[in-house]
Structure formats: C-alpha cells, structure tokens
Write a structure and sequence with these properties.
This protein is mainly alpha-helical. 65% of the residues lie in helices and 3% in strands.
Length: 546
C-alpha cells in the first residue's frame, strides 16, 4: 500500500492507494497500476515515460526510484486530483490510456507502397514488352528463351521472399527496404540496356529478387506501424498499389505500337520509384516493434513519437512491454517455424497463399483476352484494362470494409464469389443451352471472379499473416508464406497449359471452383478474426489458445 497526499478542491486528504500486486489485471498477466480514486469528475491525461510530458497529475510517494513516471487515468465519476506517487509506465493498463494520436503513419505507408507498385509493375511490364524485346534480342523464334525471360522473375521472387525475412530480422525493416532498392534498380537498368538475352535474364532475376523481398516486407512494415483501428484499411492498400503497378505497366506499353524500341523505356521507368523507395525509407521511422524486440527502447520511443505523436508513447510502450512480459526469447530460427508451438499458425499462413494461387487467379487473367474476344471485344488492351479496373475497384471496396466486416468474413465472401464465378465460367463453355450467351456470360464470370478475388483472397492474406504471427517469428513466417506463394505461382505457370490441353479449360475451371469451396470450409474452421485488436493482443490470445 502507498499513502498519498491528494489535493482536491483546495483541500488536502490522505488517500491509501493500492500498490502493485494487490490485484490482478483481467486483461493480461502484467501487474496492475497504482490508482487514486476520488468522487467527482473524470481524471484524464497522458503519462510520462522516460521524459514524456507531465500532463496534469503528479504522483510521488515516499522514496522515489529512478525513472519515476507521472500519469493520468480515466475512470467514471472521479475528480481531478493532484497527488504524488511513483508508477512505472508498464504498470498502467492500456484501457486507462486514451490519448489521441497527433502523428500520422500515412506518409510512411505511402513510401512502403512504392515497393508494392514495383511488385505489380515488374510482374506486368514483360507482358506487353516481350514481343518487341524478343525481336531486338534475336529470340523471337525461341519460345524457350522467351519463357526464361518471363519465369526468371518468378524464380528470383521466390529466392527474394525467403531472404527478405532474415534480412528484416537482422537489419530492421527500413534498412532492408533500402537494401532492396539495389536489386530493383540494378535489375531495371540491366533490363533496359540489355543487348543480349543473358543480360536481360540477369536483369529480370535481380528485379525478381527485389520484388520477392518487397512482397514480404511491405505488408510486414505496414502492419507493424499501423494503428489498430485502421490497420486493415492500410494493410489492404498494399494490394491496391500492386494493382496500380500492373495498370501502370499496361499504360506504359501503349506507345509500343508506334515505337517498337519503347520497351527499353518501359523497363527503365522503374528505376525512379526504386530510388525514391530508398530515399523515403532513409527518413522513415523503423518499426517500433522491431526496435523494442532488439532492446532499443529509447529508439522505439522516438519512432512511436514520430508515427503517432508524443502522447501515444506510454500507451504503445506499455502494450509492447505487456506482450513481452516473461519472455526474453531471441528471434526464431527457420526450424522453429516447424515446431509444435508455431506450426499450426504457420500452416494457416502458408495455406492462405496456396489457396490464393490454386483458386485460379492466374488462369482467369491469362484467358481473359480470349474470353473477351469471344464476346466481341477484340482489343487486348481493353480486356486487360477492364480486368485491372475490376481488381482496383474491388480492392478499394475491401479497403473500406476491412476494419468493419473483418478479415475472416471478407475471405469467406471472396472465395464463395470466386467459386460461383468459376462455375459460371465452366458452364458458359460447356452447357449447350447457354451457347448463344456464352460470350457475355464468360465476360460476366471473369469480371465477377476478379471482383470477388479483390474483395478478400487478394488483399487479406498479406494483411492477415503479420497479424497472426508472433513477433519473434513474424518476419520469417511471412517470408515462408510468401515463398509458398511464389513457388505455387511458378509451378502453376509451368504446368497450367499442359493441364488445360489434357483436360480442357471447362474441367480446369471446375477444379478451381472446388478449391475455392474447400478454402471456404478451411477458413471457417481455422482462421481467427483480428479486426480491432492490436498485434500484441492477437499474439497473447493465440499463445494462450495453443
């Protein structure tokens, strides 16, 4: 117990305050704070942590240990009090601190999304440029070498996604972004200036490594710096900017018809956002969660102040300390991901990306031009633009719903819509009664599928994974899951046409519909809802459930 002198309405009263250990917090295992209660009005303000501002209440009682912290608390029907006592910041429950953020994470999310734009751009740029670069490099009659130009990027992305997690854990998120700009810029330069196929392949490989690293790093960084209440919306922006990157590659290819050498400019353009990414990350704050995990507490507080404002420092630091109480474990190794402790949640992350790819998104995009031609839309550019616009529109809707409807419900809705769309596509190709309407129905099925994909299956996995993974495995687990994405993407691209030739596109579409239905069942039984919960709250909930 602590006896405090309390001033209330000009009168001094002696108040006995419950000391730490007298009761237990129901929220977490952290010791409770010292509290001062007086009848009357609510007591409200921020608290000091390592030099943070004193905001209206001073507490000090008896001999004060070093690092004393001043605090204000919220509660119903309590008067404004002035007292002296010592309270550690980690002892103040999160629900007691309601300081409004005065900072903004949006500029830093925007910088990170340059990586997402480059992701989409490098994937899409080769589609329009391949015919023209093949003529310039003398491989227009060699389908194998053309295939290498395309698939080398996927191979590089696979390697980059696995590497990105280890780099992010070792050097931090922002430094890894800066390192990532090197293969992105060098790869673009080599591709733009290539005069032989070997240089082009090396350039595409480096660009692939760069987008592989950014594919894991962008959602990781955004999730770790985003406030809980808008983390879903900001996390889905990653997918939106990937779509914008793909559309930018499509627009960049428009001058090709009149200028066949334009393909070099198309590759060279991507050097600019690569440099901007490095420069932007040089002035962006590091992830406070990574800094805290490394024991760099003062730097973590500086980052929090820059991201959310000084009044949020104590609240966020408390949450981080509460999540790490009783744990001094170092970053996990790769083998730890397969341990009994983590395997269940890691398998959920890997399954999300497997379902995403096996649900047929690449097949639908690949066949979209032929589908649109059957409906009388002869322009490949128009077909690609319509598919891209549907993707962007669906992702914007998902962004607005992510923190309202939740991740799990959007995933179930998305895969259900994709299953129905695949069934419609399959029937439009085989059911004779629908033959007169097969073209319009196929277009409707394609657009509905892309919209459904953009509502959940596209943006949610990259957002959900950093949320459900514990802090010590987060970077590597995200990298492993993204690695599954690139591996499955590579093999689907390798064998898809062979499977279509053997079984027919209608049967393949039915197979994709079955995968989507299976995904709905799996998500309903295994995926947890994360909306409105901090990363530390999610980690504690999953740890107690395991």
């Amino acid at each position: 117990m602590i006896r405090c002198v309390v001033k209330c309405g000009g009168q001094q009263q002696h108040v006995v305050v419950a000391a730490r250990g007298d009761r237990k917090s129901p929220a977490i295992a952290a010791p409770p704070p010292a509290t001062v209660r007086m009848p009357g009005r609510v007591l409200c303000c921020g608290m000091r942590s390592r030099g943070a501002d004193l905001a209206g209440v001073e507490m000090a009682a008896g001999p004060q240990p070093q690092g004393g912290v001043s605090g204000l608390f919220r509660g119903p029907r309590y008067s404004r009090v002035r007292a002296t006592a010592t309270v550690d910041p980690e002892d103040i429950p999160l629900e007691k601190v309601q300081a409004k953020s005065s900072g903004s994470v949006l500029p830093y999310v925007g910088v990170a999304c340059l990586g997402a734009i480059l992701f989409g751009y490098h994937l899409g740029v080769v589609n329009g440029a391949l015919e023209y670069l093949a003529k310039d490099l003398g491989i227009d009659e060699n389908a194998v070498l053309q295939g290498w130009v395309v698939s080398t990027t996927l191979a590089g992305a696979t390697a980059g996604s696995f590497t990105g997690g280890a780099l992010a854990d070792k050097f931090g998120r922002t430094r890894t972004f800066i390192l990532d700009a090197i293969p992105l810029a060098v790869g673009a330069f080599l591709s733009a200036t290539a005069h032989d196929v070997r240089t082009m392949i090396i350039g595409r490989l480096l660009a692939g490594i760069g987008i592989g690293i950014s594919s894991a790093l962008v959602p990781l960084y955004i999730s770790e710096i985003s406030p809980t209440e808008i983390r879903g919306a900001l996390g889905s922006v990653n997918q939106l900017f990937i779509c914008i990157g793909i559309l930018a590659a499509l627009v960049a290819g428009l001058p090709l018809a009149g200028n066949p050498a334009w393909w070099r400019t198309m590759f060279g353009i991507s050097i600019v956002p690569s440099i901007l990414l490095a420069l932007g990350m040089a002035v962006s704050p590091e992830s406070p969660r990574w800094l805290f995990q490394q024991g760099k507490l003062s730097q973590a507080e500086t980052a929090i102040k820059k991201l959310y404002g000084r009044e949020k420092v104590a609240e966020v630091m408390y949450d981080l300390k509460a999540a790490s109480q009783g744990s001094s474990e170092p970053d996990a190794g790769w083998l730890d991901l397969f341990s009994k402790r983590y395997w269940k949640v890691v398998s959920v992350g890997a399954a999300m990306f497997l379902f995403q790819q096996l649900a047929g998104i690449n097949a639908v995009v690949y066949y979209s031009t032929s589908v649109f031609r059957s409906a009388g839309i002869a322009s490949d550019v128009a077909a690609s633009a319509l598919v891209g616009a549907a993707n962007v529109f669906g992702t914007m809707i998902a962004s607005s719903l992510m923190d309202k409807q939740g991740r799990k419900s959007l995933l179930i809705t998305s895969f259900s819509g994709m299953a129905a769309s695949m069934l419609l596509l399959s029937l439009s190709f085989t059911w004779k009664a629908l033959a007169p309407y097969s073209g319009p129905l196929a277009v409707a099925g394609t657009v509905l599928y892309v919209l459904s994909f953009a509502l959940g299956a596209g943006p949610v996995p990259a957002l959900l994974l950093p949320e459900i993974f514990a802090s010590r495995i987060r970077a590597k687990a995200v990298a492993l899951s993204l690695g599954m994405h690139w591996v499955s993407n590579f093999f689907i691209g390798l064998y898809f046409l062979s499977v279509v030739n053997k079984f027919g596109i209608s049967t393949v579409y039915l197979g994709f519909a079955s995968v989507c239905a299976l995904a709905v069942v799996y998500i309903a039984g295994n995926v947890v809802e994360t909306k409105g919960r901090s990363l530390e709250e999610i980690e504690r909930a999953l740890s107690s459930a395991s």
